[in-house]
From TrEMBL:
Its cofactor is Mn(2+). GO terms for molecular function: metal ion binding; phosphoric diester hydrolase activity. CDD domains: MPP_MPPE1. Belongs to the metallophosphoesterase superfamily. MPPE1 family. Its main location: endoplasmic reticulum. This is Metallophosphoesterase 1. Residues 69-304 form the Calcineurin-like phosphoesterase domain. One of its GO terms (biological process) is endoplasmic reticulum to Golgi vesicle-mediated transport. One of its GO terms (cellular component) is endoplasmic reticulum-Golgi intermediate compartment membrane. Metallophosphoesterase that catalyzes the removal of a side-chain ethanolamine-phosphate (EtNP) from the second mannose of the GPI-anchor protein intermediate. Participates in the glycan remodeling steps of GPI-anchor maturation to allow an efficient transport of GPI-anchor proteins from the endoplasmic reticulum to the Golgi. Interacts with GPI-anchor proteins (via the GPI portion). Interacts with TMED10. It is a multi-pass membrane protein. It holds the Pfam family Metallophos.
Amino acid sequence: MATIKLWFGRQNFHLSKSFLLLKIIAVVFAVLLFCEFLIYYLVIFRCNWPEVKIRGYDSERETLEPVLKAMFLADTHLLGKVRGHWLDKLRREWQMERAFQTALWLLQPEVVFILGDIFDEGKWSSSQAWADDVERFHKMFRHPHHVQLKVVAGNHDIGFHYQMSTYRIKRFEKVFNRERLFSWKGINFVMVNSVALEGDGCNICSEAEAELIKISHKLNCSREAHRSSQCGDGQLLPASAPILLQHFPLYRRSDANCSGEDAAPPEERGIPFKERYDVLSQEASQKLLWWLRPRLVLSGHTHTRDWVYTNQTRVCFCPFPKSFSNSYML
Ligand SMILES: *[C@@H]1O[C@H](CO)[C@@H](O)[C@H](O)[C@H]1NC(C)=O
Ligand SMILES: *[C@@H]1O[C@H](CO)[C@@H](O)[C@H](O)[C@H]1NC(C)=O
Ligand SMILES: *[C@@H]1O[C@H](CO)[C@@H](O)[C@H](O)[C@H]1NC(C)=O
């Protein structure tokens, strides 16, 4: 009798122990599933595209126009070989991939722009390290064929002005298109290599300025009611003010006037910006505004949210989960 009791007791003990273990595994699994997977759906699900109402000819009625759904990211800083620890890399890249893939799935943008600093070490990486970074980029930011992905170069991709070289720019443009002007659904996007706007007349800088003047000319032709003879018979762009996309922000003295979620912390807002380092020079900023007369300028670089210059364009700002600190969806 006694032995049987003991046997049952042990069995119970074994059962409850494995039950406890099972419970722990289940809890850990649930936590991981939630924090590393489901949270992205929950957070991004709260974002919505704004409904754009455009007054039709009949001013009584408001009609819904077809709209272009565009998503903007900046400063993804894929860690490189030199400064990236494998664990840090693994974690950040998982977060970015999940955030991006979830946003693609839930929001279904038609075009995605990345406003520079896609890579952290493009400014000095060897060709082998560069190829490795590019491969990981393609895996993380994979997207269906009908979604277009456009990028502009940042100082970490091709180096600051003093590090920038034709080799690095070519290498970058071989992976990503070297397109500067992109029009879709009546919207013109101008993608500026803002690292080349130093204004010192270097070769790369003069080329970049010449390109911008050409684009300015094209845009002016499409905006003029009576085309001047200089416009030629080329295909006209949609007659709308462009949206300017660049890595460096336009010149501003500081972030003192910025507020809201994802703005710089209050104690940092008053710190003056350095021209040609934190922001474009006043001269380059003025040129961009004169030449292109944009209705909206979006930029990256400062890792804080800002909007510098907007004219009647609605943008839905939607932050990613907090832990995903290196990138913002604008
Ligand atoms: C286009 O028009 C703007 C505004 O009138 C002007 O500032 C700019 O220089 C023009 N661009 C070219 C290439 O003439
Ligand atoms: C903040 O905005 C005011 C009013 O528009 C302007 O006068 C001031 O220069 C701005 N400050 C900064 C640092 O940009
Ligand atoms: C803003 O847009 C309106 C209408 O398109 C235009 O009349 C106005 O000049 C623009 N303002 C600036 C600062 O570009």
